[in-house]
Automatic annotation (TrEMBL), chain A:
Polar residues bias locations: 1-12
Membrane-spanning segments: none
Superkingdom as given in the UniProt entry: Eukaryota
Lineage of the organism: Eukaryota, Viridiplantae, Streptophyta, Embryophyta, Tracheophyta
The organism of origin for this protein: Actinidia chinensis var. chinensis
Name the record gives this protein: Scarecrow-like protein
TrEMBL record, chain B:
Gene Ontology molecular function terms on file: DNA binding; DNA-binding transcription factor activity
Entry keyword Transcription: yes
Main location: nucleus
Compartments it resides in: Nucleus
Organism (species): Actinidia chinensis var. chinensis
Protein name per Swiss-Prot or TrEMBL: Protein PHR1-LIKE like
Length: 504, 293
């Protein structure tokens, strides 16, 4: 899954210069109308020599290449934008740009970038051969120009690492022209979202969700679940592992660290009710404690209402509590209510480790969970602390794989829905990944081992279920692999989701 | 080993005594139609067998090999003859009557047989041998069936799980939509007047534009309309990160209309807008909002 791409420090300025002419080609006619941006590099206070050298070269070519825009302009993009009615300058949708901001805001101190990887001279980054096996097939078909945005993005990531925020801003500004919209091949769209995420880091802006967003997100999630096996694989494999562990118990308590919209528990409850009915016993009761991020009020309310209703229809005793991540961070497992006599299951995802580390795993023994299920749908790296640039590269590769698989799975469907799914479901994850990228992510395997968790295999039922699911989806390219008690859903040999079950 | 030929055995009255050569009479073997075909000792074949045994000096003296040579039936193997001979010998030894004709393996060992039911006892003994094979075959078959059954069970359960999840997502979507609508309705009354003017303007544009469109690309006017409506509603102003055109299209489209798909959105929108022309401009904004619920 790792990309063995590298870059040379010494090569950067000349190569950027070399490509400056082509990579500044305006991807939209909008840039024609606009006057060249007022060279923020000049206005910024005391730029480093490297910064000014690069930015000057960039802005010089800006003026020179305007006349040849017709040749350079990508026809596809032009048609697309024309349809959208964006060819007219006056109706130009406000672009999120930083050319107005003269003063760069102070970089949030919570992110401590360690530039240890940055000055590695052993890194080599050959442009043309950025086509390791693990990367999208698109690479093989892209010409040199198209590689630019990936290079530039990585260069921008480097800047974050070395704390050259002004340079990062400049580079991302340029990248805005290259990637104004999430169009093109999956890699390009993924790069767009990563660019946005990096820009977000610079401005420190936070996203607040509104109910209109939530609706779009739910709809996107529903469509995503219908076309791609990713969600169903994650949910049902986890459910099966939990069901087997808590089978027969009258009181089940699940601690869910990544509840999403709660769809998983609806099918879990259905299963529980069916089993109780077939055994002619009273329905057990299910209790869920969901650890949720802040600003999850709307979703929490919806989930509570809907799961309550679902449970009522199935005649299952049900209760759900929401605990804020912040509270959990402070109090660890004491933030959660446990009742004697319950069988407890814990459902984890890497996001929680990225946010608060893996220390709380050591406390798990005290509550003696019957099973701890880990669902990794974020392409988490195996271990060690990857550098910021490494995280961005890995993330870029992972999400472009996800987008590729999504495209393949919804062939024949409207492109519109793919974009919505990417925008409402993948974009927040990318943002979160970039935000967490700088932090030292704990190697979760070591953390699991240290906490005394040992992996248990997934049952044959789960195997059959996964295969059955893939047959249902009827898309070539997906397959399930089993490695060391993990079940991994792959898209063309690249891992998408890895699920595993653990016991104390 | 088995030759897949059917037909009766033609035993001719006279057969030559040959050594190692086959008769040209070409008698055929009768095989059962089981998955694992086994030889059926028909009366004629058995008669031939008995003749051969008698020729060779009785069941004790005759050996399967010599019987095979003597009978000279194509496709008959030593294996067949061994088992048949054994049964024949057992049948010949006993003088007591066989209590029942059950094929029970344990009974056969002790049961006695009358001379006349030699063929039935032979059949029973043969079934004993075959019984072992049958058990094995049954076991394998049961294993296959078990696996098949489990896979069917998995399929069935998976279907139920998918349905449950789908049903849940549908209901949460509807509830979310309702929540938003209530919010929008509450806040929309604030910006009633200004919105109405814009509404009539854009409604004209919208009804001219939309004709069964499927993609968001063709709803610039609708989205503008929706955006303007959104802008009247302060609590719903999305402080969007990276608010590009594609985003606003998505957001505003979903917030105003039924989430059933863009084409039905346009149709629904069209339906609501038509009375606008019929009644002139006296269409209250609330009517728009509540109707979309």
């Amino acid at each position: 899954m790792k990309v063995p791409c590298t870059t040379t420090q010494a090569h950067q300025p000349p190569s950027l210069k070399h490509r400056a002419t082509s990579f500044n080609e305006p991807k939209s006619v909008l840039d024609l109308g606009r006057s060249p941006s007022p060279s923020p590099a000049v206005n910024k206070p005391t730029p480093k020599s490297e910064v000014s050298a690069i930015s000057e070269s960039l802005f010089q070519s800006d003026d020179g290449s305007l006349h040849s825009v017709d040749q350079i302009l990508n026809l596809e993009d032009w048609v697309w934008m024309r349809e959208l009615g964006l060819h007219d300058d006056s109706t130009r949708i406000p672009q999120f740009n930083h050319s107005d901001s003269q003063l760069l805001p102070e970089f949030p101190p919570s992110h401590s970038f360690v530039p240890d990887d940055f000055s590695l001279s052993s890194d080599q980054f050959p442009n043309e051969s950025f086509n390791s096996v693990a990367l999208s097939n698109d690479f093989h078909h892209m010409n040199n120009d198209d590689f630019n945005f990936v290079d530039v993005l990585i260069r921008a990531a480097d800047c974050f690492e070395s704390n050259e925020l002004q340079l990062a801003d400049v580079i991302l500004e340029r990248l805005n022209h290259q990637l104004p919209y999430p169009t093109g091949k999956p890699l390009q769209r993924a790069a767009f979202y990563f660019k946005e995420a990096l820009l977000g880091l610079l401005t420190g802006s936070t996203r607040s969700t509104h109910s209109s967003d939530v609706i779009q997100a739910i709809k996107a999630y529903k469509n995503f679940a219908n076309v791609s096996p990713i969600i169903m694989f994650s949910n049902f494999t986890a459910n099966q592992a939990i069901l087997e562990a808590v089978d027969g118990s009258m009181f089940v308590h699940v601690v869910d660290f990544d509840i999403g919209f709660g769809g998983q528990w609806a099918s879990f409850m259905r299963e529980v009710a069916d089993r109780a009915e077939s055994r002619r016993v009273n329905s057990p009761s299910l209790r869920i404690t969901a650890v949720v991020p802040e600003e999850y009020a709307i979703e929490s309310r919806l989930i509570r209402d809907n799961l309550n209703q679902f449970a009522c229809e199935l005649k299952i005793g049900f209760d759900i509590e929401f605990v804020l991540v912040r509270t959990f961070e402070l109090l660890s497992l004491k933030a959660i209510r446990f009742i004697d006599g319950e069988k407890t299951a814990v459902l984890l995802s890497p996001a929680i480790f990225q946010r608060i580390g893996a220390g709380f795993l050591n406390d798990l023994r005290q509550i003696s969970p019957h099973v701890v299920v880990l669902v990794d749908a974020e392409g988490m790296t195996e271990g060690g602390t990857p550098s910021f640039r490494r995280s961005v590269i890995d993330g870029l590769e992972f999400y472009s794989t996800v987008m590729e698989s999504l495209e393949a799975a919804s062939v024949g469907g409207s492109e519109d829905w793919i974009r919505r799914i990417e925008n409402f479901l993948l974009r927040p994850k990318i943002f979160a990944a970039v935000e967490a990228a700088g932090r030292r992510a704990p190697p979760w395997r070591e953390a699991f081992a240290a906490a005394g968790l040992r992996a248990v295999g997934l049952s044959q039922f789960a195997d059959f279920q996964a295969e059955c699911l893939l047959r249902k989806v009827q898309v070539r390219g997906f397959h399930v692999a089993k490695l060391q008690a993990e079940m991994v859903l792959c898209w063309q040999q690249r891992a998408l989701v890895a699920t595993s079950a653990w016991r104390c | 080993m088995y030759s897949a030929i059917g037909g009766g055995v033609g035993i001719h009255g006279d057969f030559q005594r040959i050594d190692g050569a086959h008769l040209t009479g070409d008698p055929c073997l009768v095989l059962t139609t089981d998955p694992k075909p086994r030889l059926r000792w028909t009366a004629e074949l058995h008669e031939r067998f008995v003749d051969a045994v008698t020729q060779l000096g009785g069941p004790d003296k005759a050996t399967p090999k010599t019987i095979m040579r003597t009978m000279a039936v194509k496709g008959l193997t030593l294996y067949h003859l061994k088992s048949h001979l054994q049964k024949y010998r057992m049948g010949k030894q006993s003088c007591k009557e066989l209590p029942d004709n059950s094929k029970d393996a344990s009974c056969i060992a002790e049961s006695q047989d009358t001379g006349s039911s030699a063929s039935s006892s032979a059949k029973i003994a043969q079934d004993l041998n075959d019984g072992y094979h049958v058990t094995e075959a049954l076991r394998v078959q049961m294993e296959v069936q078990r696996r098949l059954h489990e896979q069917l069970e998995v399929q069935r359960r998976l279907q139920l799980r998918i349905e449950a999840q789908g049903k849940y997502l549908q209901s949460i979507l509807e509830k979310a939509f309702k929540v938003l609508n209530d919010q929008a309705a509450a806040a929309a009354t604030a910006g009633l007047e200004a919105a109405r003017e814009e509404l009539s303007e854009l409604a004209i544009k919208a009804s001219n534009d939309c004709d069964g469109m499927v993609s968001a690309l063709k709803v610039p006017s609708l989205s503008e309309f929706a955006v303007s409506l959104e802008n009247k509603n302060p609590s719903n102003l999305p402080a969007q990160f990276g608010d590009c055109s594609v985003d606003s299209c998505f957001i505003s489209n979903g917030s105003l209309v039924s989430p059933m798909g863009v084409s039905s959105q346009s149709a629904a929108m069209k339906k609501r807008l038509r009375p606008l022309f019929g009644n002139g401009d006296s269409l209250p904004l609330e009517w728009m909002i509540t109707n979309s619920g």
